[in-house]
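1st attempt posting a full record on here, be nice pls
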Amino acid sequence: MDRVKQIAAHFAPKGLAALERKSPDDVVITFAMRSPLCKAGKGGFKDARTDELMLEMFKHTVAHSEVDPALIGDICVGTVLTPDANYHARGAALAAGIPESVPIQTINRFCSSGLMAVTAIANQIRTGQIEIGLAIGVESMSENPDKGGPSQSELIAANQPSKDCIQRMGWTSENVASDFDVSRQDQDAYAALSFQRAEAAEKAGYFEREIIPFTVFRKDPTTGERTRVTITKDDGIRYGTTAESLGKIRAAFPQWGKGATTGGNASQITDGAASVLLMTRRKAESLGLKIISKYVSTAVTGVSPRIMGVGPVYAVRMVLQQTGLTKEDVDLFEINEAFASQCLYTVRELALPIDKVNVNGGAIAFGHPLGCTGARQIATGLNELERRKGKVLVTGMCIGTGMGAAAVFVRE
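the predicted structure (as tokens):
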């Protein structure tokens, strides 16, 4: 009987009308929020440990989600650079008051890790393994700086695509710019738009509905004493940024390609966390919870490692095909701005209306904490979708070593 249901589901009607239909078995989101995003090494979270960011995210989720944490069937934490991640995640969950009976796992698919955490939990719910699950994305790039790829065995490095997997991400940005003729001027103009949109959104108070103030330790540089401080806003948004001002910044990688990637038109190195609580519609309704959105599907695909930034092009196409949607059905796109080169190429190649893409800015303006971003995009996108009374959100990102991921969400 289960096999019959699977076959029927495969041939079920697709498209927006079908996705808007409600079923007790739908996987829905009842909570999606994030921390402020802070500049690594010098921002608000520079002295906060990874497990402390996890602890704050867990505590706030328990406090604000209106769900007894004992009901959570599983937790999945997306994080990229964190050594011994499962130790940190399990310890932080217990310290936050989540019962010992609630299991936890960690997942790492580089820049999509937050989305992969959401996807893993959604799939567990969809297959009936659990009714409620929690997905967290977190990264402290202050505590764990990105040191690039590891060394390779000569047996692996003899294969050129394999060797390309461990190259610096700036190299891949320059390859995209060169291969697809994305100019420095266009990259700076796009980056300026990201900053300007983020500035406007912050001043209008749009982020206040998605940001949870985080209380963390701050270390006195003279005495080493740690005191608690509360961070309420992103600290990477640079007011007054223009394409002209960005044009004065020197190339970050002049040795590669066009030397068009700079510290001004690439994502900021950042600390942050985000949380998404998922469950069946049946369970949400029985608990009397407000449903924010229905999770629909995720697509992941591989691309050439040397131009890893093109991944969203293929992943977005794939997830739209899976769900029977057209780009015209989509109200908002959140495409991670790893680099202006690859994000702008994605917008052009997919012919996306720029007024639907990263409408409140993106990672260039407020940062890309690697494991956090996939979950952060959901919190940001659903918040703006609600404000605009839109219906469909698509999130997407490129992934180091040559992959792309994208997901579809439908607002209630």
